[in-house]
Write a structure and sequence with these properties.
about 5% strand; Alpha-Beta Plaits; 4 strands; single chain; alpha+beta; four-stranded antiparallel β-sheet; 2 domains
């Protein structure tokens, strides 16, 4: 090979090296690689948590069962209150306003007033009872129908029964006052004492369910926290080694957070099942009791929407309980 050819080959080799050197040097892995590594780390943590819980099926089941009972009690009471409300009829009907029309009012006044009142925004329903209907109903309920037939004329006025949309003392009194000023109305009557009692009963039930929910949520967090703490103690040596070789707090915390969420899923499913079974079990006795009164009332099941909220709430509480437990003990897990 001649000197010229050797110089050309050397120049090409130098040029090739220079071309490679001109390419930008990567600063690190790209976003796709980082995302794949992040997903793989979470998948490994989830699989590890499931595997560890599967090794203790009885203990895991009873932990979920205790959480399920704590979740199902307040929701069960809330569902029972809703069903009792349906059993007694609408609460608004207990606060009906009775409008007694003037005796000399024409027969067309009642229907026109009923239509006018039914169109009001704070009125749910308006029903007109004519004088003849009122007399017939009174005869059936009083047992003195023979004496009433001897009267020269019907002494009972026409009545419009107004059902409000909301049970509120101030709003009902304002509505009663407004209705009493309508033309053709002799008197507007409302049993305010019953409305006050009804409102107090409703508020008492709501406060009781709210307070019970707070107590049981606190108990649920304690159960999850104590369970996660036991898992942490069982893996103390392993965690100390992980932190010794550079494992971050997030890496150490991740499996326990998944474990708390898994406990929440199990508790939510069990709570849903307990509520469905409990309502179905009570429904047999309720149907028999309602049948004695000539009613076809039956308890409703767990609505799908509320069941989903229950499941999501259980997962959230399990996650929070695990996070609190790990955060408390993470500082104690430094390598010795």
């Amino acid at each position: 090979m001649s000197e010229t050819q050797r110089n050309t080959k050397a120049a090409e080799r130098v040029g090739a090296v220079k071309a490679k050197a001109d390419k930008p040097i990567s600063d690190g892995p790209d976003f796709t690689t980082l995302l794949h590594a992040w997903l793989e780390s979470h998948r490994a943590s989830l699989v590890d948590s499931l595997r560890r819980l599967a090794r203790q099926p009885i203990g895991s089941f009873f932990t979920c069962l205790v959480m399920a009972i704590a979740l199902s009690l307040p929701m069960g009471l809330s569902l029972l209150l809703d069903n009792v409300e349906r059993l007694g009829g609408s609460w608004q009907r207990a606060a009906q306003i009775s409008l007694y029309l003037k005796l000399d009012a024409s027969e067309s006044v009642g229907p026109s007033l009923r239509d006018e009142i039914a169109g009001m925004p704070d009125v749910s329903e308006a029903e007109f009872i004519s004088r003849a209907e009122a007399l017939s109903e009174f005869e059936q309920q009083s047992g003195i129908g023979e004496a009433l037939r001897d009267l020269p004329e019907n002494p009972l006025p026409g009545v419009i029964v107004v059902t409000p949309k909301e049970v509120d003392k101030a709003a009902l009194e304002a509505l009663r006052q407004r209705l009493s000023e309508l033309s053709g109305v002799q008197q507007a009557q409302l049993d305010m004492q019953w409305v006050e009692r009804l409102t107090a009963i409703l508020k008492l039930g709501q406060h009781f369910v709210f307070g019970l929910s707070l107590l049981l949520i606190l108990a649920l967090l304690l159960v999850v926290g104590n369970t996660i703490r036991l898992h942490i103690e069982n893996r103390r040596s392993e965690i100390e080694v992980i932190k010794l070789v550079g494992g971050t707090d997030g890496y150490v915390r991740r499996p326990f957070l998944y474990m708390g969420a898994i406990y929440g899923v199990g508790a939510g499913v069990l709570a849903w099942a307990v509520l469905a079974f409990g309502l179905d079990w009570l429904n047999d006795a309720v149907v028999r009791l309602a049948g004695l009164y000539g009613s076809d009332f039956a308890l409703g099941g767990v609505p799908v929407e509320q069941g989903c909220y229950l499941l999501l709430g259980a997962v959230f509480l399990g996650y929070i309980g695990a996070w609190l437990a790990v955060a408390r003990h993470l500082s104690e897990l430094a390598p010795r």
